[in-house]
Amino acid sequence: MKFKDPQETHCASCGVESAIPVRDLLALTAHCPSCHASFSEIGLSMRRTVDEVSAGVKAITIIMHVEEQLGVTFPDEPFEAVCDGNELTLDDLAAAVRQSVSSDIHPLVHQAILTAMRTKFPDAPDKLDFNAPLPDALSQPRKYGNY
Ligand SMILES: [Zn+2]
After folding, report:
1. 3-state secondary structure 49-82
2. I want to staple 66 with a disulfide (CB 3.0 to 4.6 A). Which of 55, 75, 102, 112 is the partner?
3. For residues 30 and 24, is the Cβ–Cβ distance under 8 A?
4. 58, exposed or middle or buried, with CB in 10 Å at 0-12, 13-18, 19+?
């Protein structure tokens, strides 16, 4: 995820446009240079964008690796739904995969996702939380420095 840096930022309080460093916005330390209103709301909404985009890309990376392992090709529909949201969890991914494969493959799905995580995201925590939103499942603590 790349933001234009500095980010053209519109102040909701005084209406002034200013160029604000992305790092300050994401750190929630940015203020309007004109009226000193906090830009933390803007930073929070940028954080959500970062999470959504990176969660979607990571979900697709995991799915493609699971396809390779199981020797199947998933239809797009179930995944468009799950890749859409910031709250996507590994459990959601597993459920979407199970919807798309025959039931004799179902017992392999969990392990295939684990293998995909270990292969593609070796930095993920040892104990994977299948119920946490993907950005949290992949990295703890969350990092916002590498946008
Ligand atoms: Zn202002």
Report:
1. HHHHHHHHHHHHHHHHHHHHHHCCCCCCHHHHHH
2. 112
3. yes
4. buried
Distance from the alpha carbon of residue 48 to the mean position of ligand 1, in angstroms: 23
Q: Which two tokens stand for residue 50?
A: 């970062």
Q: What angle do CA 24, 39, 137 make, to 5 degrees?
A: 65
Measure the CA–CA gap between 89 and 104, rounded to whole angstroms: 23
CA of 125 to the centre of ligand 1 (A): 41
Could you tell me the distance, in angstroms and rounded to a whole number, from the CA of residue 93 to the centre of ligand 1? 42
> What predicted TM-score, i.e. pTM, was given to this entire model?
0.67
- Give 37-66 pLDDT, tens digit per residue: 999 999 999 988 888 778 888 888 898 999
Start-to-end CA span in the chain (Å)? 6
